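Hi L.,

You mentioned the student needs an example of a multi-chain input paired with its predicted structure. This one should do, with 410 residues in total across all chains.
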Amino acid sequence: MKLGTVTGCVWATKKSPALRGQSLLQVRVGELELVAADLVGAGQGDRVILSFGSAARLEQPDCPVDAAIVGILDEGTVRECR
Amino acid sequence: MKLGTVTGCVWATKKSPALRGQSLLQVRVGELELVAADLVGAGQGDRVILSFGSAARLEQPDCPVDAAIVGILDEGTVRECR
Amino acid sequence: MKLGTVTGCVWATKKSPALRGQSLLQVRVGELELVAADLVGAGQGDRVILSFGSAARLEQPDCPVDAAIVGILDEGTVRECR
Amino acid sequence: MKLGTVTGCVWATKKSPALRGQSLLQVRVGELELVAADLVGAGQGDRVILSFGSAARLEQPDCPVDAAIVGILDEGTVRECR
Amino acid sequence: MKLGTVTGCVWATKKSPALRGQSLLQVRVGELELVAADLVGAGQGDRVILSFGSAARLEQPDCPVDAAIVGILDEGTVRECR
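Structure written out for the whole complex:
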């Protein structure tokens, strides 16, 4: 998985029917801007955990997405393991 | 998923039989030129949403494509989430 | 998918039995040299369409390849969509 | 697979229910920071082997992860094969 | 697939049980060092063909690897196709 920051909402009226009702967010990962399905209710500026590939479709197998937001970081950063 | 811009149409007479009738478009994603199956009727210059991997084959499981255009951006850009 | 140019033939006597009889070509994609299974009879210098991942195994599910040549470009270039 | 170094623990209260109880570690692979499920009890600073994609879900098919720590290097380095 | 050169043997006592008995080699692919399961008996310095993703698990579906050595180049180089 990768960590990223939500930077926008993606609107597309013309799309695959299987994407209807799907919340698509733009997420910056390093230098890249990606688009991911939101599974956890993330919002603008949130630091999120992204999962890619078929992992992104476990909760909705018929939805043609290849990236999903599967978690929101508690404090925006990652700490050393104790 | 990634955002890209349609830059051309790909013609190949000699191809895998499973690709027959498939509309293949060239799409620029950042610095890269990719080829994707068009599932939504995109045209030259459209800003599109691309899905990769097995997600690109959900609608046509026997077609050997690894990228598909699954949506067209409403306004060409992505806005902040409200 | 990606576009590439066939740059050589790959010979390997010692290989996975499931690769026997498989034509493997070297293909340059941008700056990278890759190896792909040839499904369409491509030759040295051809401009080809490559599909990656499980898409490359649709026609031969038991063959351990992750890239396949699925088409040959008609004119070596991609044109604007009309 | 790739080799990496564990650099932190990832905490996310708000997450996909299928991730509950899953230990997620931050791992540096070259210049990149990734997040991976820990299958072997790795700790801060350990040199680990990471597997990506569906390989990361073999032990827990319903967990939406795309990377897993599948081993810890014995001595932190890789030696020449004898 | 990609071409690479075997640069070492990877030893990990603490690992996923499904990796037991699996020969893991370090392979240099361009600038990158990767780890791959050896399916063909490759040795230090061999020029090898690597397959990635689920292709790497066709011969051993329960082994959490995402890369496998599936062939050894006959002469260390690739020649023009005749």
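You could point out the following to them. The mean pLDDT of chain C is 95. Chains C and D do not touch (no CB pair under 8 Å).

Best wishes,
N.
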